[in-house]
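Objective 1.3, modelling of assemblies. Example input:
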Amino acid sequence: MNVPTMAEMTAQGKQPEVLFWVGCAGSFDDRAKKVTKAFVQILNRAKVDFAVLGTEETCTGDPAKRSGNEFLFQMQAMTNIEVLNAYEVKKIVTACPHCFNTIKNEYPELGGSYEVMHHTQFLKSLLSEGRLTIEGGQYKGKKITFHDPCYLGRANEVYEAPRDLIQKLEVELVEMKRCKSNGLCCGAGGAQMFKDAEKGNQEINLLRTEEALQIQPEIIATGCPFCKTMLTDGVKNKEKEGSVEVMDIVEMIANAQDL
Amino acid sequence: MHYIPNLLFAILCTVGIGFFVKNIQKLRRNILMGKPADRNDRSKERWKNMFRIALGQSKMVRRPVAGILHLVVYIGFVIINIEVLEIILDGLLGTHRLFSGWISFYGFLIGTFEILAVLVLLAVGVFWARRNLVKVKRFWSKEMTSWPKNDGNIILYFEVVLMGLFLTMNATDHSFQAMEAGNPVSQFIAPLFASFSETLLHLIERTAWWLHISGILLFLNYLYYSKHLHILLAFPNTFYANLEAKGKFDNNKTVRKEVETMMDPNADPYAVPEETSEPEKFGASDVQDLSWVQLMNAYTCTECGRCSSVCPANQTGKELSPRAIMMKTRDRLEEVGKNTDANQGVFKDDGKQLLKDYISPEELWACTSCNACVEECPVNIDPLSIIMDMRQYLVMEESAAPQELNAMMSNIENNGAPWQFNQQDRLNWKE
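Predicted structure (tokens):
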């Protein structure tokens, strides 16, 4: 797999078109790593001139900030901004809505201003530029629902890009009762991913999974590594893993194009 | 002797409005106990938000039933109050229906008020049923007991009484009925009084008139103590609301200075920090640590509970309720305000604070920061910002994060990821 790093590019005197910010989940979490690979396959197919930071990338600080550790957040942010600015990065794409939100909204004040895109927005721009074509392939006609990640949807009002991509797969997109700005959280945001939930009468991810299962989809699509984990666990808990898959949109696109 | 009613009326208005002004001053003083926040930028967007969201009720209709009924009461309330202008002038000048000279327009105006009054009565009836018979879930949460519960009903009774008095006043007004304009509703009430003597009729009309204006003044002064303050504060609250992306949380400026110094290779490591009067506190543990916008949010909240009904934590039985966060903030702010009044304008430490005495860490840690509450609020209140500021205090001042979060944070510190993976393995996924 062709994955150039910024260090290598710079050594060759080259500047890529876009930096792919992989994120911690995309680098280390097994389910998210599949998304990272699928995205790189598509980037290579569309001949996008990209690079990653590799070992120079570190956590954006999102979970630290949302846990209340502003100091750790700003340390992470300023460290990352120093690296990004040193490489004169202008455009960043990431497959994680949390990284997307933090770099896009919280880094500028700290000295890091870039054009930041979620991978669904980036793929959509490739489509409209004619650099990428998407066909339905194995997903043609399947019933799919889309779970809006909070940090993509409400936090940044990106509702259409992921849906436009799903439509390109020639599927039957059925919305859940609560979608878009009314979407229900998967339960992982605000650093909940890293701790047990407080005492209650249900887990949030199960509530959301139930809503998704009500419409009997073959695939629950999403665009966030944490949502993917929470909903995959939810589907397993409901013993539906045999009939319902939870996938990132980018995995579906890569599969449909036999990448 | 002839001027006694005018004099009485002037006194009534002066006392009623005087108390109201005094309460508004107190409200302003309390709100300004909060820290500064600059919300004077982008005024065009701010005016637009205020017109669309507060005046135009655009977010209310996200829930059509309550939204449309609320619109009826709101329009009724605003428009019928034009009538108050005439009442006040009549009262002061000793005239009777001062504007009635212009019959056709006056008839149209009062006629509209009468119809609105009936619609308001119907809407209020449905609201009452939703609270007390249908028992809509969000009105029966655990924070909706005692005062908050009664407050909701009292306002409805107020509306019924005011509308009833308005219609009675019109129905018993002999000369007004004789005009045969502007009485589309009261003409059907008038026959009920047909057998009454003229003196008695006049007495009822005068009583209804006096009670009506007294009721309005009483209602005006009830606002400060009630969730109903939103009818005034919805306007500044939507004007000064956050215009940034909802996912953008404020970067703490004090922390920024420290981090910049730490990362500056030219900084003098032995430099003595500048003397400031008091070391800055991180985050919020009491109302004075919040910004004035957050405090205004608390006074604006009308406890409708839409935020809590969409909160993922609340729906799954967790302790957190965004509405309760706002209610508790207001309660504490009121307490601090009373303390300040009792101590010649200076707050005397009462050994209490917003954190723990009102809002528990358990509530704060249940939040997923999903912004559903912020999105849902019909008047752009931001409970999430308060939760985040209080988390900041818990972690940065008390090191009181849940154990697992401490582990996550030390992972970030040591190896740049929330999990225990080596930074050098960041690119291993491509193998």
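The domain at 6-128 of chain A is CATH 3.40.50 (Rossmann fold).
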